[in-house]
Amino acid sequence: MIDKINNLKMFFKTVFGNINYITIAVITALLFVVSSIWLANYNFLYHTFVSDLLSLDYKIKIVFNFVELIKTSVVISTLITISIISILFGINIAALIFYIKKQISISKGIKASVWASLVSLLGVGCFSCGSVIISSIFGFSATAAFLGFLPFHGYEFGVIGIISLLISIYLLAKKINNNFACKV
């Protein structure tokens, strides 16, 4: 266990010792939060923009008023999940970019990072309407029926996303700390 903690410490010093990767992680996390809030408010934002009753200036103010958008559509548990996934997503993307820059050939570590990032996106949504991404793909009715059968009504995707991102970050940390050496 101590080795794993030391491995993660060395990983964070290696990757995030460079301000560029901190910047990548922060920007990626912020973009994920913004996208999640906008996706959770998709119907509201759509109707706001197609409405003839509001001025363009007011429509833009509504879109960028994140505090009100969060209040109207996101419960605290979803906000916590989005925050955790955003931070992990930012770390994962920054580490992946670091790894790709250092490693020319594509490996299993990159595939795991991409997989973890995609799974974490499935968890974006709320308890009342479910996953926004799944709803977009399969339609609201099919998604509602599917999520109704799940024990936590779709919240599982957020948890699976968090676990997948943690595993991905750990595997990338191992690869980065092993000086990109091939074990063959």
Question: How would you describe this structure to a colleague?
Answer:
The protein starts with a helix and ends in a 7-residue tail after the last helix. The radius of gyration is 19 Å and the shape is elongated. The chain has one domain (2-177). β1 and β2 (130-131) form a beta hairpin. It has 10 helices and 2 strands, in the order αααααααββααα. Strands 1-2 form a two-stranded antiparallel sheet. With 184 residues, it is mainly alpha-helical. 33% of the residues are buried.
Quick tags:
membrane, elongated, transmembrane, transmembrane helix, mainly alpha, two-stranded antiparallel sheet, 184 residues
Q: Topology, please?
A:
Blueprint: H1 2-16, H2 19-40, H3 42-50, H4 56-63, H5 66-73, H6 76-102, H7 108-122, E1 125-126, E2 130-131, H8 132-138, H9 140-149, H10 155-177
Antiparallel strand pairs: 1-2
Number of helices: 10
Mean of pLDDT: 74
Helix fraction by DSSP (H/I, runs of at least 4): over 70%
Question: Which structural class fits the helix and strand makeup?
Answer: mainly alpha
Unreliable spans are: 123-146
How many structural domains can be distinguished in the coordinates? Answer: 1
Overall shape: it is elongated
Q: How are helices and strands ordered from N to C?
A: HHHHHHHEEHHH
Distance between the termini: 26 Å
Keywords: Membrane, Transmembrane, Transmembrane helix
Transmembrane segments: 21-40, 74-100, 112-140, 152-173
Summed up, what is this model?
With 184 residues, the chain is an all-alpha fold. The protein contains ten helices and two strands, in the order αααααααββααα.
